[in-house]
């Protein structure tokens, strides 16, 4: 695979560029404004398929040639899209079966975007034919810096339930299970008379009476992510062959969606992410931090690309707030602080028409004499001075375990409580670390954990025996784990691990769970901390309670009041050379922070910088020569003073500072 | 028909047993545990179709034979399912038209359960072929105690709107109406240009613009219940023929659903019920009491079977609470108190996989050393000592009138207010009697009412002239009726009885209703009690008000405030030798209880036991020899003392006591 | 076109008459009751298609002939429906493709009403064949007073997404755009790869992934209104040819729906409206006032017909309140006060069956001895004394600009905020004028505005250059405009007017909007009034804020608090000889009233009558001879005294008075 960043010597700045929406006289102004704004790279052609192939097999690349020349002449690199994200209307007319089908059997039609069945051989055939044309035509162009494969895969159509998908699903299952007996066993089809006697009896999990078979539903999630990945791979097979030195990426959207980004990232040269925090949401920066930590983790800390963000407002929420003064800069720097090597936007020039005409652009409808464009220009030029950051990395002492299979499974059908949601659990455990300025890696449950002082396992409902052993071994070898309720419950096929919940972690935790007692909607339970944690006093916990039977574990908190009064609610267990903490409920955010503080002290995990004022975030990126770049982010609306290495740094409201400490 | 209970000499204890989910080595342990737990009967094969007929016409009964032998050897009776509740995947592949269709034309697919069109000849053909095989193979087996026909008919797919159903619906209508003129008149098709000129123009009430024709909608409810009944009868026709001495049942689910259980019960040897009160719901026991009274009433007081309940939590609510300590025993006894001759569960062993893997089992995932299993074992052995209860009955002085046609109609389309709901009205009138420990029968409006001291008619929107006369005659002959608003409004075809609402009850009630004034959403109206009821003072009533014109009735309450200030809100009318009370609004629960107290005193209706503490329920079952078994249920979380026949009985929290008084 | 009202010499009184629901013996009683109640006109045959054409091509007009004779003999005029609103069941059987299709591809079926695709050639063929029969048969009948074409067009099925509609849509687009290049440009299809290479690639805006193309969605709204209009015109083409002297109408329903009533009204001899205010809604009278002002405006002040209202309750809300005593009379007179020349009802006799059996009738189920019928009879006879009102008109100094294209566009897809809704904005600006008893005309943005002292432009999101110039010219020539935010943003194709929002009004307003800052859901912002408006003090505004850059405009209010603190929130700009006020947010209802008071004083706009008590409404209708009829409406539940021309007029609760002042 191609090494990304060997061509880019600075923090990439720019965005999606859709010149086909404008007369060519506008292009000249674009070049001037891009140059003035320090634009170094644009993503070209994301939605250009219908323009370059107006009729099947008829190509018009003239305008692409011209814009390539223009960009090249202005020293702007091209991240060239494969243009396959939104098929032209003619595809649906020629092949109506390429239109996606919902679980109820209805189709999605052209007129929006992404209206294709991921398993469609016809879609893939037309798409790869175009990619081959593009690779041949522009592969040698000096401006070509990167391939942008598709766009936001699965954002609107993560799954298709049509007959073509059914055939593909059967093929995928055949590969996974070999024979029907194995599948019937894995899917527990002896329940509800679901045993399959022929592969052709199997369908996607369309609308059913009652509840879906959970293993079928889970495998369909895996399959659907794999089918989109196959679309991506069909295209990269071409680009990698024709242009082996041009790196490839595709832009993820949403930290937790239908795409198993951990699996995908192996096939990418660099991870890209589209980030759209809601300016109306006071928690937006914390949510971004989580997503950025995840993106950085997908390729083991390799710098990633902020491929899209909005210059200000978006158009697709019910109410689309603007980013107040300086917030766009602050949030751009936040991405860099979390490991991004680019600040890119959707889109260069605000569209005049189409569904996203009210999405802000780097050049607003009113043109360059606007606050938004001034902030863009200012940031673009500011970033030129920070090229030393490119390629720098950060080290984390804490890992958060996340797993797509487990997340899909726990949000599937028929569980003790709908209040157990993957991102809710992950965020509840990430937030106290974010608040405390502790950098966090996300890791797979089977990852090498040895380098971490603390591993947090928010809600690992599904776990294989091997992965469970990996976590246990880590603790046995001296590590510390914090695990929360409803972990270790089922195997890869959503079948309960027998032997007392959570069987694969029973020895590790020194306890078993006799019964789940999820709380009613909006309900809560008192808990009371004890022993080492008695300073935490009493608390009101939510979502869950359960009957814990300790087998060696020490009780750190008990339920207070109700039927479980006095029963353990949180425990600690010495296991080998390490310790395993367990939470049988969800404490309040305040107590979650206290608990993580306790764990950090116990494991000697230091924050990025100590004694930061509330609302000020710091991340440190370290170069290969050991130079530390402290990036300070003032998320508050008031000026603050931060002390770094003994020196006072003043930050205005929403201000950013970079303090470099030579190694 | 076969007489149920001639084989069973004790309260049946056990549950659904799905051994096909487990390796045969587990079966031996099952036998040991069942024996220790006092299991006397299991329901076998509910979802075994795909297992015994893996491909159409290929049968594998070996494992059923073996489990039959094993159960027989352990003296456990078999309630054998006909296995037709969930067709194997091959049926949908062979006959996609057997899949149910929703009103919008979309289909429901395999992957859940109950995915068949009730009218499908193909489904019935394959189902009855299997039933014949089962009856021939196991009809003579000594362990066979009962047939469990299908399972929870109509629970998920009470109606199908497909073309096959359309043909069946036309046949049903042809039988009902004979010719189209009669149908057009009954359906009032002169409105909205709906007159039919050909039977083939008639469809199920699929999605329409505006509102459905109410008579079409009502007839489709009747038809759909009848079609499911036809499925049931097609199977019992076989079992009754092959095994005339084996009683048949099917398990109802939900007190008020799409199945006309009053009509079905005529075709059953014993009524069965699946009871799933929500442990998170503080009103759960009152709701169960209502359902149990209904089940007992379906076959005129004949003891019924609690066919399913959960040992603790279920899996299909959004949040599934556990049954706290002793509650499962308490609620089991509540069913017995209301006339059940069994305590059966879904299911014996908690599934490892499949949609209900988190439904509690009599043997939890963690095995026998668990609270849940200990409570099961304890109860199973306790019940062995109460065989004298089997076959005993209870006598009721109060009847509550309920009618499926009326309920379907009033919850249909285009009414004065959506706040008039059958079960809301029934529960509002049942609850005060439950609270007062008065046993209640449910009866059809055309039933013989002469044995009751008080008849309550909560909301009998639809009534035939004959049924109205039956109620009037009862009062004329000396009975007492309490009738609530919006009763006697339409005939069997949802056509208004002309002549002043409620025309068929106008003479009985001594009044007519000039106008309906339903209250706004969440609205209320003051009412003020008068005369005999002046002790009830003033109250806040909800849901409904109306303009009542008395014609002989005496006013017992008036509206207070608003446009109807001073107008009658409740009345009493002397009619023949009896009295008819009428409520033109819904008083508060407190006043409903006072009103029922008043009526009980006036009609000399005594509670089961007098002076019970709040939250303590009592029911008395009487044997043929006159022995009275008082069953005392402490629904509260505190210990209470109850005096029965002068003797003090102590009950711990959630405790149960049985006090037997020889005749 | 025929002149309406030349036949009618009094305020038409009556309603929908559906004698086919009743035996003919009832008809005689109908005639007696109609005569006693002063009924002068009935609408006949609205839903009679299936009755007169029970099988395709077989007609049965006998009963229509008889009822025509009966009505004629009783001197009751007939408004004859073309009977095409609800096709008979045989049409769907013969031509299933006539059934409407929803965006998800599902169909709507017979069993309700209006189940036809508006573009269906088959529907139109059968419909016009029937209309021709009717026109030939009854065109010369002396009782025929008017044609009632269809019924409530588009009420339930305003749009159809089927393949037949797709073909028609392409034809409509071809006519509008000529060639695909023009369409692709207008629809901005270069975004999201939507460029069309063939007309057959275009579909209705069915379900899509992500958001619809806004121009496609907007054109489909125009097309759908036009297709229904084409149905209407296909019928009037016949009636106008056969009976050139019989006026035609069709009844609109809802002030703002999918039908462009401003466009339709050109093709009608008289505007008709179905008015169903909710008796449970305390704001009902204000909403009616708005709708009635609109109806009067559709044909430039020509009196209109109140074609339907309920005698009391309707049947189709979730809870259907009755009209309290005297309210039906009050609300009937309100329609007359706003220019209606009729008081008509749905329907004469309450149906016994069918979906609207609980809709109140002029003759209730209980017959004539009822409050409802007495009020009907009283009003019918009262109106006989007010024939002088027929044909009188009213003059307005204030115009409210409304535009269907703009309304459809702003409620379409992907905007800064879903809180910008046409009727919300219109009502917010109409209400203060209603409260102040100022009569208001609704006008198109391109209308002649010269006669108005004040023009209010609530939210004119979409505006053509020409229409924008029309409004600017009005101000330049001395007029006064109040314009609210998000006006002048896009052109006829939903493409942003470039050049700084709102480009077409920038010169007029003396400002440009740099950024939209819509408020969060339920959010608000402080504003503080200044200068001339400083008496209004501070206020809490909702829905919207924005960054206003003045270019000559004077600031009248500023935002207070938040990121926009101190920035302009409202402005005034001298432009030519006139003034343009601008609101960049939505002030509270109280301040909206103060602001309109200020504007009325500044433009010398007088109320209908001065010094009316709160809740008392007055409207003045003036005859050709200058006679002024002041209609006084007491919307309150208490008696009031009103002074008119120095004389005191007493009105009881909910009372009405007409005071005539000779010219």
TrEMBL record, chains A, B, C:
One GO BP: carbohydrate metabolic process
Catalytic reaction equation(s): Hydrolysis of terminal non-reducing beta-D-galactose residues in beta-D-galactosides
All residue ranges annotated as the Beta-galactosidase trimerisation domain in the record: 397-604
Signal peptide: none
Catalytic residues of the enzyme: 152, 308
The family this protein is said to belong to: Belongs to the glycosyl hydrolase 42 family.
Name of the molecule in the record: Beta-galactosidase
Organism: Stackebrandtia nassauensis (strain DSM 44728 / CIP 108903 / NRRL B-16338 / NBRC 102104 / LLR-40K-21)
